[in-house]
Known about the structure:
single chain, globular, mainly beta, three-stranded antiparallel beta sheet, six-stranded mixed beta sheet, 1 helix, Immunoglobulin-like
Amino acid sequence: MPNRVHFDVYQGEDRTLTVxxxxxxxxxxSLTGATLSWRVGRNPYxxxxxxxxxxxxxxxxxxANGQFTVSISAVDTQYMAGDYMHQGWATISGQTYxxxxxxxxxxxxxxxxx
Length: 114
């Protein structure tokens, strides 16, 4: 089972997220030589969902401990609000694995009246 991780961001926020890749035994998955992708969308198990809304390429930050980062920019979330799902995928030696998934919450940006 992939690592369950939840993220909260604000609409229109530039942010770098750190994701931990885990294998089925919940141990850190070595990312040596891996290609990483990460996507956000509505529930992929619903037929009426539009999956994905956006996709990013991950960057390995600690291969031995299964850590990678994903950078999102303001334009990725500027028109989103609410709860979505995310999934991180690793391709290692031609095999593709879901290594992280969970809720991706986009909070509305509230401007101050000042």
